[in-house]
Amino acid sequence: MALLIALHILAAVVWVGGMFFAYMALRPAAGPLEPETRLALWRGVFRRFFPWVWLCVAVLLASGYGMIFHYLGGFKGAGLHIHVMQAIGIVMMLLFGHLFFGPWRRFDAAVENKKLPDAAKYLNQIRHIVAVNLVLGLLTIIVGASGRFW
Fold first, then answer.
1. Using one digit for the tens of pLDDT, what is the confidence trace for 89-138?
2. How far apart are CA 105 and CA 98, in angstroms?
3. Nearest to 30 by CA among 17, 42, 18, 44
4. Which residue ranges traverse the bilayer (predicted)?
5. In sequence order, what DSSP letters do the residues of 80-141 get, joined into one string?
6. Sequence ranges of the domains in the chain
């Protein structure tokens, strides 16, 4: 159980912490850069971060369901907070899947083809999805940390 909890928490910290850093620190710092430089920076960031997010998604699913079925005896043994975490987590994963296969792919192609106005539009779409996922991720952390005390 300790290993599954540790993996679960690490995956959540990497994903949510990465979004927090990108949104609250990198985005404002990159704002003054010239558009071509800023868009190339974000492309490099996403190319490095998104594989980690996919790994986090896999670890969160495996560790979460591993704990539910191996230690809690299934969903009947899971508290309300576990169900809430699962629901929010699935929404986050679906949003990330949409981001990755939609705006990210279009952004990547637009930067590659030097279509900067299009790239900026797709980056804005990514920003909105990340903002929603960041709020959901922080909420999920609160639920996970406090849920056993409800």
1. 999 999 999 999 999 999 999 999 999 999 999 999 999 999 999 999 99
2. 10
3. 42
4. 6-26, 49-72, 84-104, 125-145
5. HHHHHHHHHHHHHHHHHHHHIIIIIHHHHHHHHTT-HHHHHHHHHHHHHHHHHHHHHHHHHH
6. 2-7+50-149
